Amino acid sequence: MITKKFTNGRGFTFYMSADHLSDQEQVRHNKIATFRQQGVEPYGDKYDVSHYSREIITKPDALDGKTVRLSGRIMTKRGHGKAGFAHIQDSEGQIQIYLREDRLGEKDYMLYKELDVGDIIGVTGEIFTTKKGEITVNVSSFSLLSKSLRPLPEKWHGLRDVELRYRQRYLDLMVNPEVRKVFIARSKIIQKMRTFLTDRGFLEVETPVMHTLAGGANARPFITHHNTLDMELYLRIATELHLKRLVVGGMDKVFELGRIFRNEGISTNHNPEFTTVEVYQANADYEDMMVLTEEMVASLAKEVLGTLTIEYQGKSLDFTPPWPRRDMQDVVKEVTGIDFDSIVDDVAARKIAREKNLELMPGLSRGEILFAFFEEFCEDKLSGPIFIKNYPVEVSPLARRNRRDPRFTDRFEAFMAGREIANAFTELNDPIDQRGRFEQQVSRRVSGDDEAHMMDEDFITALEYGMPPTGGLGIGVDRLIMILTDSPSIRDVILFPTMRPKE
RNA sequence: GGGCCAUUAGCUCAGGCGGCAGAGCACCUGACUUUUAAUCAGGGUGUCCCAGGUUCGAGUCCUGGAUGGCUCACCA
Questions:
Q1: Strand B contacts (CB < 7 A) among A residues 185-244?
Q2: How far apart are CA A270 and CA A491, in angstroms?
Q3: ipTM of this model?
Q4: What's the confidence (pLDDT) of residue A49?
Q5: How many angstroms separate the most distant Cα atoms in chain A?
Q6: Which residue minimizes Cα–C1' distance to B37?
């Protein structure tokens, strides 16, 4: 290690070295040693804080001339010989501080001059307003609370590199203030969601994350292993089947807000672990779930954003209930000109799919093809919010059949900005029909569809004891938060999105 | 998984046709007691993502790989 020693005019000794540390890191490491030599602890004790920055900025008149104590991270620093300005940032924002040598004394002022952007300090001083009109703390004393050993990202551009932003979210939060706003909004949305439901008499419950059988959705699970039991366990892909067991047990109104896991692709709309809320209400049906959905989303928008009309990526969305309700078959007819009501069998449906150049797995049924038409040609055109209802039975293995037309189920999905946000139905409570649906799923599984459901005998057994007529709703919480915070990527609303490790 | 693009200083980015590695901020040295992207004078601090190849010579061209972004497929 090549080391070069030099001393600056203020008695601080530095060693520049040629090892793995950058020059800026080396300087900061050396300062720690020098501070300790001078009796200054670089990782100080807790600082009694009287105010946060925002309280001071928002009511300067009441605090003018008053002494305040606050702590924060140095974000900018400007020296002027025997005086200096800096901005410190706390959880509420930034405030300017002013330090003078004739106030602090030579020793402390010299210590201040050695502080770096990124260091966390506690300051005590009086509030005043500078010539240029900025509310500022005239510091009478300060102490170093935590020495930062690495330089912060650039003050003007912030941290732009998306890879670094996700991998080192703490830096993103430090230097990109709008990021903090998104996650504060996320926290509020989830909190309001919880109180919205509990206020309406729903009971929050926790069901297993590790399943012996991953059900309730069409998705590939993550597999893990329990050593003592020596068995495979799956991380849950949905909370649905356990929540319905609770309804069988007499818990009439339940919900679970939590993380689920799907072993599938990653994209701007998909993270392997994500958050859903599922709600089940006995003596209700999917119409009731529509009302619940629109009321909940409207109340979240109102309470968190203060408005029912928002902009998402330049498009306007109005959450004022009631939202439009459209039949899937009607929407497909409107967009593609094809009336599935007049297509009576699977063969005719496959023929029309070929005409529209829709490449599908062989042997699909009429309902599956209708659903494919909807997804392919209609879904991304639904700016919403809108409810699409009456889903084919083949793609809805857990939903009750429509009384008048058993080819369909009493199911809807809510769409916003062309994305599915919610999925709900009148729950299938006929155990014999449910067994048939599972059997159909299993046969699809056998023929290669590894996302199809597995037979869940235990769930069937629960239904055989009798489940009351029940409405169920699932909401993709991350996606809803994306809409409400105008975030283009799901990674912008998940603090630590799944990333491949570096190297 | 396929296609396209990106990776250069701590950060944000430029580097035409292959010819000594660049700017701003940050940093270092000095000046400056109400500045605010402070200013002034001086200083470039680097595994050009990695490994090969072509070439007298590669940040630049070729091959392979890594990570990320967008997109298609899959899905919510």
A1: 217-219
A2: 9
A3: 0.90
A4: 96
A5: 91
A6: A156
